[in-house]
Amino acid sequence: MTLLTPVATPGTRAEQHATRAAFFLPGFATAAWAPLVPFAKARTGLDEGSLGLVLLCLGAGSLLAMPLAGVLAARHGCRAVMVATVLMVIASLPLLALAPSPWTLGLALFVFGAGVGACDCTMNIHAVMVERDAGRPMMSGFHAFYSIGGAVGAAAMTALLALHLAPWVVCVLAVAVMTVLLAIASPRWRRDKAPADAPVFAIPHGVVLGIGVLCFVAFLAEGAMLDWSAVFLHEVQQVEASRAGLGFMTFAIAMTVTRLVGDGLVARLGRHLAILLGSLVAAAGFGLVTFAPVLPLALVGYALIGLGCANIVPALFSMAGNQKAMPESLAIPAITTLGYAGVLAGPALIGFVAQGSSLVVAFCLVAVALVGIGLAARRLRA
Predict the structure, then answer these.
(1) Is the backbone of residue 77 left (phi > 0), alpha (psi -120 to 50) or beta?
(2) H helices present in the chain, as ranges
(3) Taking the C-alpha atoms of 344, 55, 53 and 349 in order, what is their torsion angle to the nearest 10 degrees?
């Protein structure tokens, strides 16, 4: 269907900027947690296996909240749900720096993950409406602002922790930034509601299920960077805890830059080739991170992971929008939920593998899974 391009008015431009802020906020919050993982591990006395189990709470909160967020957004509008979920994130982030035991850390991670996951789901619904009104592609640009939030959050937290500020103080500063941005952006968020009888969820099948499985693996790889990059640098490569966030920061910056030019790259290469090349580059990055003898070379590996992973998920969502097995309005939410299951299972799986063997083996297995994405995506042409 061809869309007419409307004239951009001050109102629509403000709404588009507010949508970018909606993507920035959960990206910033999620990245703010990554450099805190080594501190939380040491404070609660967890080993790798136990840490992986506790990290499962973050993914569980996200996965359980996402379908509910879709229902609530349809019934009450995106603005109400996004405001509520961002406030959940703001309230729980400082608790991640203060939780004294594995149980309290797991509870805080569950609330934090529920807020981030519900906001992730709702912001994409919001973005679809804003993009439709604009009459031109904007989704990659919106997702780039999620990555920008991640890069800013990781850089700011790493820099402040390197100044030897207490983790809870750094979290309070992050919360202050998020509160100001929420106050500025939320008045421009949409209040549209779906018809009362509109379907809001469907179990994926056929090619949609295949795309969802690939999204699962892609999100697993991204989750590995979020939850294990700092631990890997600190414990395997002996980087001090205050600098261990450099890995995720490098990954996030590389992903941000690549997503900003991602639409043009995918248009020239085609979705399937872009996924194949991206998966190979990301797998090579995991290999370099795993076996690099010095920190600068390891950081090159983290950059390659960000570069390779950047356009895999957007390209998979584009494939979902073009398939005919299920209506797009049902396929996209189903794939989103299945993909985010990778965030649920990934950190725990990596923790269990690390407990049974090592983090090196766990990262190598992620690299192999990434190669599988590229090879399998070409079989989904039909």
Answers:
(1) left
(2) 10-33, 37-44, 48-76, 78-96, 102-134, 139-162, 167-185, 207-235, 246-260, 262-269, 271-291, 295-309, 312-322, 328-356, 359-377
(3) 50
* Segment 176-196 mean pLDDT: 87
* CA atoms of 100 and 320, how far apart (whole Å): 43
DSSP helix/strand/coil, 240: coil
pTM: 0.73
| CATH number belonging to the domain at 13-380, selected among 3.30.360.10, 3.40.50.620, 1.20.1250.20, 3.10.20.340 | 1.20.1250.20
The two tokens of residue 96 are 């991640």
Which residues neighbour 379 within 8 Å (Cβ) at sequence distance 6 or greater? 210
DSSP string for 89-101:
HHHHHHHHTT--S
Environment class of 139 (CB within 10 Å of its CB; exposed 0-12, middle 13-18, buried 19+): middle
Where are the chain's structural domains? 13-380
pLDDT digits (tens, 9 = 90+) for 223-273: 888 777 888 788 777 777 777 788 888 898 898 888 888 877 877 888 788
Residue type present at position 232? F
Of 365, 375, 90, 51, nearest in space to 227 by CA: 51
HEC profile of 286-340: HHHHHHCCCHHHHHHHHHHHHHHHCCHHHHHHHHHHHCCCCCHHHHHHHHHHHHH
Q: Which helix or strand (DSSP H or E) is residue 204 part of?
A: none
Of the candidates 245, 246, 242, 29, the residue with the CA atom closest to the CA atom of residue 150: 29
Q: Classify residue 231 by burial, with Cβ atoms within 10 Å: 0-12, 13-18, 19+.
A: buried
| Closest C-alpha to 340, from 117, 145, 146 | 117
Rg (CA), the chain: 20
